[in-house]
Specification:
Layout: E1 6-10, H1 17-28, E2 31-34, H2 35-49, E3 62-64, E4 71-73, E5 76-77, H3 85-95, H4 98-111, E6 117-121, H5 124-128, E7 134-139, H6 142-155, H7 162-178, E8 191-194, H8 200-216
Parallel strand pairs: 1-6, 1-7, 2-6, 7-8
Antiparallel strand pairs: 3-4, 4-5
Binding site for ATP: 11-19
Protein name: Cytidylate kinase
Catalytic activity: CMP + ATP = CDP + ADP; dCMP + ATP = dCDP + ADP
Length: 218
């Protein structure tokens, strides 16, 4: 059987984790898991039904589509809904709840049991998959991340200015880095990649090379 590894990619909001993880997974024929989308799906569920539903997470059905980019909540495609401004404004708070993290971390670990997974998030290398063979921590300045996010939002037809996005990203960084449970922090054995002045193909190629080096080891 061909050897496989798990790849954990962490970093702050809008660091390019999802884009890079998706491309790396496709190149390696691995499964891509967007943990941020999972937290957004739970946040959407709480917004729609009230915070009380957090106590009934076992009743939730969260699944990814075959394309690896769409996500379904109780059978409904919520890929677009989870990217709404309301979800964005609330996801950090919902993500910090112990019961939410426990529920989703358990699900994420189960998915990765058979290896061959590229998983991105904020605590993958430290909490979810601490034994992942390759850990990468991506970073870039808030201003650069805001410019990247602005381009994405404009492509989705969302009208928002750069200053607002920069403020949102700085606030999200503060919440993620200072939350009590699984704060955003670089794993001690993660490779630090400052992508501020790197293109998407450059980042992808660097991670692919590191993964291939590991796979060649006995």
């Amino acid at each position: 059987m061909k050897k496989k590894i798990n790849i954990a990619i962490d970093g702050p909001a809008a660091a390019g984790k999802s884009t890079i993880s998706r491309r790396v997974a496709k190149r390696m024929a691995y499964i891509y898991i967007d943990t941020g989308a999972m937290y957004r799906a739970v946040t959407l569920h709480a917004i729609r039904n009230g915070r009380g539903v957090i106590d009934q997470l076992d009743d939730l059905d969260i699944r990814f589509g075959a394309d690896g980019t769409s996500i379904y909540l109780n059978g409904e495609d919520v890929s677009a809904d989870i990217r709404s401004q309301e979800v964005t404004n609330n996801v950090s708070e919902i993500s910090s709840l112990a019961e939410v993290r426990q529920y989703l971390v358990s699900m994420q670990r189960k998915i990765a049991e058979d290896k061959g997974v590229v998983m991105d998030g904020r605590d993958i290398g430290t909490t979810v998959l601490p034994e992942a063979e390759l850990k990468v921590y991506m970073k870039a300045s808030p201003e650069i991340r805001a410019k990247r996010r602005l381009k994405e939002e404009k492509e989705r037809g969302i009208d928002i200015d750069l200053e607002t996005l920069t403020d949102q990203i700085i606030r999200r960084d503060d919440l993620d880095m200072n939350r009590e449970i699984s704060p955003l922090v670089k794993a001690h054995d993660a490779v630090l990649l400052d992508t501020s002045h790197m293109s998407i193909p450059e980042v992808e190629e660097k991670i692919i090379r590191m993964a291939e080096d590991l796979l060649r080891e006995d």
